[in-house]
Design brief:
By secondary structure, the protein is an alpha+beta fold. About 35% of the residues lie in helices and about 20% in strands.
């Protein structure tokens, strides 16, 4: 059963979409719902993008040259453009919106990643990005504290040394407590991983 808002064909919505090659980079867009694939739990929308919220430099680096799901037949949308052809985000938006083959640049978004308002979309994007940043902090701890890396220039001898570094790094952003860091970097014991039933 669907527990989130479902949008009809022909309506505008805000969505978070990602490429097939780098699903951890989400693009916040506004789009016209061109087609809908209904599903009991998670419908999908084929969107004609009318607005990006990232600047042109971010788009050139992370969108251009990447493949996205284009339609419900699993075909690719490939943003293959010369980066020098566009100086502003608006120029790029106009190009793909008014292109004679504009339907080649439609993308598929899961309904759970779609919202009515830009504010709701921004809140969702921020929550996902915060989760990804915390995940990377955990990965940095795991890599930099490995015994095989103990002579590496970015090695941390123990958890306390890493906590101090994180506190210094994030001191102007949030209140970093030991409990907050422990929640992020605490790893389950191997016996816990074996007991997944």
């Amino acid at each position: 059963m669907i527990h989130h808002r479902v949008f009809p064909k022909g309506e505008y919505c805000h969505a978070l979409v990602s490429s097939r090659s780098n699903p951890n980079i989400l693009f916040q867009v506004r789009g016209l719902i061109y087609d809908v694939k209904m599903d009991e739990f998670n419908p999908q929308y084929r969107l004609k993008i009318v607005r990006f919220y990232d600047d042109i430099n971010f788009l050139k680096q992370n969108l251009f040259g990447h493949k996205f799901q284009r339609d419900f037949k699993n075909r690719d949308c490939y943003f293959r453009f010369k980066r020098d052809n566009f100086d502003t985000r608006e120029e790029f938006e106009q190009h793909i919106t008014n292109h004679k083959s504009w339907d080649k640049y439609t993308v598929v978004a899961d309904s759970i990643m779609c919202t009515k308002t830009e504010a709701d979309s921004t809140q969702m994007l921020n929550q996902v990005n915060t989760f990804l940043i915390e995940k990377h902090i955990k990965e940095i701890y795991e890599i930099s504290s490995r015994t095989t890396y103990r002579k590496g220039e970015l090695h941390f001898r123990n958890k306390d040394e890493f906590k101090l570094a994180v506190k210094r790094f994030l001191k102007d952003k949030i209140e970093v407590t030991d409990d907050w860091i422990d929640d992020i970097i605490t790893r389950p014991f191997h016996s816990d991983l074996d007991d997944l039933d």
